[in-house]
Structure prediction request, 229 residues.
Amino acid sequence: MATLIAIEGIDGAGKGTQANRLVASLRDRGLKADSLQFPRYKATAFGSAIGDFLNGRFGSLGDVHPQLAAVLYAGDRYESRSLLLQMMEEHDVVVLDRFVGSNLAHQSAKLEGAARAALIQWIERIEFEVFALPRPQLTILIDMSSQMSRELVALKAARDYTDQKADLQESDLPYLEKVRRCYLALAHSRLDWRTVHGLNDDGSLRTIDDVATEILVIAEQSVVTASST
Prediction:
């Protein structure tokens, strides 16, 4: 089975760009690599419901309990499970633009303390045990400030799930900052997570090439480790 690498980060962090760059670089090195993006808004029933959620059709972020929202995202991956497993059988590396880590960070950001910890545990049980999704060997977090995230989201091309410049989550700066902090806490507490900074020390944006080079080095280490076990 393929090495499974997930790329995570708040909205606008460059996950899709870096996932594509990583796949291209791995192919240049002779590996069979491909990518899959979540949510799959137009490909699954749950993905379509996520689009409705992000467009505010179920109410504001606070109107939908995070445990219920988590089921939508987990369901989208469950509907995609057979496709993902097939890709893993046919490739050396599969790169995911968002995976379970997104669910953990985004939903747990809406809670605090013991309730947050309990929700993280519950989501992982649903995704990995009940829905039997494969666990990534490596998760790479692209850390981006929430303010820079908002600026980069504003530059995005039109998306297929919304006709708004920013969806329900992207437009809420305090929420995005909470999500960022949850991501950093997850990365700090897990040995299979690595953090790549999207900004330079002076707060300026790192170049796409610079970030891609660092991600490739990290990913190659994971691929080598997986092939030797």
Q: What stands out?
A: Residues 41 and 47 are 4 Å apart (CA to CA). The first strand starts at residue 3 and ends at 8. The mean pLDDT is 91.
